[in-house]
Specification:
InterPro entries: B30.2/SPRY, B30.2/SPRY_sf, ConA-like_dom_sf, SPRY_dom, SPRYD3_SPRY, Ubq-SigPath_Reg. By secondary structure, the chain is mainly beta.
């Protein structure tokens, strides 16, 4: 998919454009109990995730994953870059439940992420694609899901959604037999969704992927000293 960075579409139902220079404008509805897994990242000041790793090699990734996956009620979350640190190796995205704790979101299967340092999107691969602008201190980045079967969300994104899709075969039913087994076992099936990213209230772009059966969990990655982000897991609840 070609870069979508030259298109700016405002979220009709949700995200208000926020002046990135005004930290007080980002109302935060997040606490430590909202986070299930953290590695080389700590929760400070009731709002901020701070990287505490060495930041020397790619093995020093800091990772934070929310306790609950996105759903049709809470389908979007945001971070604000409080301190880009040495290199702004900050990633915002979605990962499957058992995603490796020392890997940046987007690098491994079952994940998708936007990386602030180079503006690239990573979809289950260590090789990124041009997607949006580089990001800096004060920028507010968002990530959300437009659930394909929900017309209320699909109408907002259908005009810019990519026809490309990514399918992680281990998480996707390959036949009617697999679908039947999922139903009999009472386990949720994977489903196609549109994942979108925003910067300062405007949509950067959208990618269609297969959501793992475990769901997509809000995730943050960091990899250079002094990086800090403020997180709001429920920015649309007022």
């Amino acid at each position: 998919m070609a870069s979508s960075s030259n298109r700016s579409v405002h979220l009709d139902c949700s995200v208000e454009t926020i002046d990135p220079r005004d930290d007080s404008m980002m109302a935060v509805d997040t606490n430590e109990e909202d986070w299930h897994r953290m590695h080389d990242i700590v929760f400070t000041n009731g709002q901020v995730l701070e990287y505490i790793g060495l930041g020397l090699t790619i093995l020093d990734v800091g990772f934070a994953q929310a306790r609950h996956p996105l759903n049709t009620t809470f389908h979007y979350f945001e971070i604000q870059i409080i301190d880009p640190g040495e290199n702004c190796y900050i990633a915002i995205g979605l990962t499957q439940k058992d995603y490796p704790k020392n890997r940046h979101p987007g690098w491994d299967k079952g994940s998708i992420a936007y990386h602030a340092d180079d503006g690239k999107i990573f979809i289950g691969s260590g090789v990124g694609e041009d997607f949006g602008p580089r990001c800096h201190k004060g920028d507010i980045l968002g990530c959300g899901i437009s659930f394909r079967n929900d017309p209320a969300y699909m109408n907002d994104f259908s005009d810019i959604a990519s026809e490309d899709s990514v399918n992680w075969s281990d998480d996707s039913p390959s036949s009617s037999d697999n679908e039947s087994n999922d139903v009999m076992n009472g386990e949720p099936k994977s489903r196609p969704v549109e994942v979108f990213f925003t910067r300062n209230g405007s949509i950067i772009g959208v990618r269609r992927v297969e959501m793992p059966s475990s769901g997509f969990y809000p995730s943050i990655g960091m990899l250079s000293t002094n990086e800090k982000v403020r997180v709001d897991l429920r920015p649309l609840t007022g």
